[in-house]
User: Fold these one by one.
Assistant:
Number 1:
Amino acid sequence: MPRTIALVEDDKAIRENYIVALRAQGYAVNAYSDRPSASKAFAEQLPDLAIIDIGLVDEMEGGFLLCQQLRQLSQTLPIIFFTARDNDVDTISGLRMGADDYLTKDISMAHLLARIAALFRRIDLLSSPSQQSEQIRLNDLLVDVSRMTVSWQDHSVALTVTEFWMLHAIIKRPGHVKSRQQLMDESQMVVDDSTITSHIKRMRKKFVQLDPDFDHIETVYGMGYRWQS
């Protein structure tokens, strides 16, 4: 069966253009023009991935509310914010709410499709049968690569798919700096620098909520990030 993508976009012309493009790639597309119709559909059945505009009809932050709803229903469903609004506050707000990516509408269709494909490649690991669990333990940190789960001091850390692979890239060689380009390559991502920064900040916050003294994800200015034991 084809993957199902939910597209929530209130501009009819944009919505129809992306329906055509996504279906041409073999995806099944369920499109919605407002938050209430999308919210009702999500409560009945989840898509495989959601692309959500932030401003929907007369709700300036309707997309944020939809993202919150989806994250309550699934921690791992890939969510992309797709919007004309391009500012740091919106980006950080969207990522903090659990979106896996934040794209502006001036990007190319090829770029959007590449990000969708990258998210699906990563989510596939959740359903792939594994003969044995591949685990990485660094003191209080336990990462189950096969199941894509993370715990800190025996407490589960609810990371998105994107956050998981960024963390995995950093901890494979503790103490070694990973540049932003290396994080993108190893995480199979196509993102810009500001998006990586937002993911790192949000990931740190999730650990700090469990352990106020957490300081193991270190920013090496001008170079990248590393896991400091």
Number 2:
Amino acid sequence: MFEALGEERHFHLKRLTRGLMVAGTALTFALAAPLAPAHATEEADVTRGEAAYEASCASCHAAPARIIARVEGADDAEKTEALEAFLPDHYAEDDQDRADIIAYMLSL
């Protein structure tokens, strides 16, 4: 009789453990999801950036070299950070286009 109770208890503990593992895994993915980008971007490309700049920016900002010279930051990383903060509200909402435009501007 006690052996039967032990087996039943063992079965319930295994089910509980498996359920906790599944729930823990789901929770891990749910918490990590907001940290991931909405969609992965390719490596920034200067050529695509020049085309995107010409299409979206050049009509108002003809001289990109003058613009990048005025962006605050001691190095490319700081300038990239400043542009990443500014461009989403300035007609560069797409992550890939923005990365490409920044790569182009920094190449000047």
